[in-house]
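look at this:
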Amino acid sequence: MNACSRATAFLAFTIALAPALAAAQPVALLPLGGSAAQERLEAVEQRIADQLRAQGLRLAPPAASARVDHPPTSAQLEAIAEQARATYVVTGEVEAMRGQYRLHLHVYYRPGARLEELLVVVLESDESARLADILRSMVRPDGLGDDALRLTGDEDPDARARREAEEAARREADEAARREAEEAARLEAEAAARREAEEAARRAEDEAARAAEEAARREREAWAGRAPYGGDGDWMLQLGVGGRYFGTLGVLPASAQGGGGLFDAALRLGRSFREVEGFELRGGLELTTGAFSGMAIHVGAAWLGSPIVEPVFIGAAAELGVLFTFTGARDAGFSARVSAVIAWRPVEHFYLEASLPELGYVSPGAGALTIGASVRAGYRF
């Protein structure tokens, strides 16, 4: 390759690489001044730095001792550009206003020794786009040029109308997008709340179902495991007392004419059978006093069932026997008795029992009907 060809190739390479080299030109961004609060100045400075980076420029930090007046002079900016080896030096002043601020921007272009200034108003609602437009128009080799009129608002009425219409359309589109996003977020939040409520209701229903199932299971287990009558012993020994009132059907011993009260003390022995739950044969001896005195021997049966889980038993009993009177006619006769029975087992093997009411018939003399009640305490073995 001859020298001419090499020169041509180098020139073509330089032309192709020029945009990338220009895009990577260093910019020294100096702290902003002005009447705005320090927090506001730092925020605007950060946004300017973000826009410069977004445009492909490289920030070249100035020396820590670099200070400029506000507004700066060309000599000050030239010195800072030389120290930072920057192509551009950017600084400015900010005056805060409600919802906007006034920016007095200074851009120094070192190769051309050119200092340009621009005073613009920046709306906070359009800050990013506005700063991007301003910096693209100033931080470039050609400088502001005709863009100064457009950026300061002194542009052609038709061009300004078009720009304002475009900006209004863009704001409307942004607002519509924002409203749409908010509506989507609201709908999603409502849907999430409904899903959460439905899930909570389902969990509550499941928990209630599990609790009901567990309660039913415990109830079934308790019912299956309830104590049967007579389960703690086939034999039973009872001691009891009772009281009855009788009314004569005819003539009994002279001392019993017209009826009266009777009091009993009894000893009973019972035998239950596991093959027939709750059934028990009973027999015993009973002493009677009151309107007349006597002794009775009874045999009979009782049946008691458990309608609840607790060791409480309800049933009925019937007895037949022979009554011997010691007073009056001193006679022997037939005796029969039926009753409703309730029993309670407070501890294993020990039972308390009551017969109420207890209806009976005795036949000595002309006979008599009796009604009363009795209580007993028994032990099973």
About this structure: The chain has three domains: 19-155, 170-225, 235-380. The two ends are 127 Å apart (CA to CA).
